[in-house]
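A.,

Following up on our hallway conversation. Structure tokens first:
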């Protein structure tokens, strides 16, 4: 199936996007741009933390790490012996898990103080750990470290990386135009012949990443608590990096099952932006990605929807940070009819010429910084305002001042000149974002994961159509007391300002 589509972007700029889909269901978006002899290339799996379940939270992000470990061809000196060793490791790990579960049960019963304490292990448990460590050492002897990255760098590739969000996982790189076939072979090989080597040690790496980015930051764990309080039913409640106990328990078998469903070609999309021949790109796509077998079924959409919040929720925390207030309202998912008005509203509030800065920072001198953001996720959405209190001011004072500004939006229409100013600013921002090959490639992939790549080409018209009445209407609709969740941060006693 081949569809040639012209997408109209900001300021009427036409971005030619050619879409085609392989028989196995994998979609390709092609945007040839003559000039710089490089191509920004990437692919997205329509899977993120929202698709997980309790017990395997963090597995989507773990996959981001595992996809750089190589394949049956890349990253190994002896694939047959390596696979044999990995199977032995899995068998030993299964026995260790049974021992670990027994210790967890003893901890529940109060028979041991800490199930993770090595002193609590049985002799059999210690024996299994020693056997497993020996197998790990053996398996590492077959690994050719970082070979995937080295091959790309040797060929002139740059910026090899990936990212996991709540709704998607994206992989990307810049490659010279004459090395495009290398990308098609490398990335398809990652999907056809993946080897989840160093799985359990990489699981520990992700656990350490969680410790560094969340546990060791001033407000990281408080933010997780805030998210879990805000999302009562939705799977957006758990962190992308996963809960600690899940990271410690995810198995290679669970990972392989997850991969077979969410990394099947019918759940993937790729994008190329730069100096390349579309006809040649299609040939390469069919030759290399055409090898992927379609999944036995398409992944199911997320079933659990957020329930209506019935009362205001509040949280007070003391952290080694500046006093702040976070105010969040449930709003709408990405590409909802009300989203453009909410985004325009955030523009009215934001920036040094925006209402919040002029009122709270310059005039009332209550805050040192304040910002608003409308966040439309794939299945849900929220509108959030964050204010940092000026020294000597209470975050509650900042909170009350924010409510006055939000009330003004609901009671008095935004002036025509003010509204046109933020529309022009949005237009200019969108135009700049489309100039970068890499930026456009990422935008197309993320939009495709959220619903359709064509979304980014529809926003300009939708933004221009927003009226003052629209902003007033959504302010009244979403900014109700019972629809908000508030977090107040105070500086922990003894913390440095």
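Then the amino acids I'd put at each of the 497 positions:
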């Amino acid at each position: 199936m081949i569809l040639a589509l012209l997408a109209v972007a900001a300021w009427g700029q036409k971005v030619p996007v050619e879409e085609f889909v392989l028989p196995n269901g994998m979609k390709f978006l092609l945007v040839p741009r003559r000039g710089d002899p490089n191509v920004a290339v990437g692919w997205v799996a329509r899977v993120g933390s929202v698709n997980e379940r309790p017990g395997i939270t963090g597995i989507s992000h773990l996959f981001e790490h595992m996809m750089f470990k190589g394949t049956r061809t890349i990253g190994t000196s002896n694939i047959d012996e390596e696979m044999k060793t990995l199977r032995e490791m899995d068998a030993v790990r299964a026995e260790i898990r049974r021992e670990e579960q027994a210790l967890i049960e003893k901890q529940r019963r109060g028979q041991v103080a800490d199930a993770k304490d090595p002193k609590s292990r049985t002799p059999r448990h210690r024996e299994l750990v020693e056997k497993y460590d020996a197998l790990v050492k053996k398996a590492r002897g077959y690994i050719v470290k970082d070979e995937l990255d080295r091959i790309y760098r040797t060929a002139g590739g740059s910026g090899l990386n990936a990212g996991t969000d709540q709704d998607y996982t994206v992989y990307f790189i810049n490659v010279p135009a004459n090395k495009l076939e290398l990308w098609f072979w490398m990335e398809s090989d990652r999907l056809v012949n993946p080897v989840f080597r160093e799985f359990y040690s990489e699981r520990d790496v992700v656990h350490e990443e969680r410790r560094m980015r969340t546990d060791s930051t001033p407000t990281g764990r408080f933010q997780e608590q805030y998210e879990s309080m805000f999302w009562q039913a939705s799977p957006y409640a758990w962190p992308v990096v996963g809960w600690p106990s899940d990271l410690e328990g995810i198995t290679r078998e669970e990972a392989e099952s997850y991969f077979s469903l969410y990394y099947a070609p019918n759940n993937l999309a790729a994008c190329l932006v730069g100096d390349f021949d579309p006809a040649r790109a299609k040939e390469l796509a069919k030759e290399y990605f055409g090898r992927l077998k379609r999944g036995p079924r398409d992944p199911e959409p997320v079933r659990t929807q957020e329930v209506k919040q019935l009362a205001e929720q509040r949280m007070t925390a003391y952290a080694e940070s500046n006093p702040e207030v976070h105010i969040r309202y449930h709003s709408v998912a990405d590409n909802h009819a009300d989203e453009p008005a909410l985004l325009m509203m955030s523009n009215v509030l934001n920036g040094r010429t925006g209402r919040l800065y002029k009122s709270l920072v310059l005039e009332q001198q209550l805050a040192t910084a304040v910002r608003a953001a409308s966040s439309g996720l794939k299945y849900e959405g929220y509108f959030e305002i964050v204010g940092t209190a000026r020294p000597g001011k209470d975050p509650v004072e900042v909170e009350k001042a924010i409510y006055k500004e939000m009330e003004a939006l609901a009671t008095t229409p935004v002036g025509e000149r003010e509204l046109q100013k933020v529309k022009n600013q949005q237009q200019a921002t969108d135009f700049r974002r489309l100039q970068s090959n890499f930026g456009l490639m990422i935008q197309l992939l993320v939009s495709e994961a959220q619903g359709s790549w064509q979304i980014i080409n529809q926003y300009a018209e939708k933004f221009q159509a927003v009226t003052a009445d629209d902003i007033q209407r959504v302010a009244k609709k979403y900014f109700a007391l019972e629809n908000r969740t508030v977090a107040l941060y105070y500086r922990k006693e003894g913390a440095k300002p």
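The two ends are 60 Å apart (CA to CA). Curious whether your intuition agrees with the design.

B.
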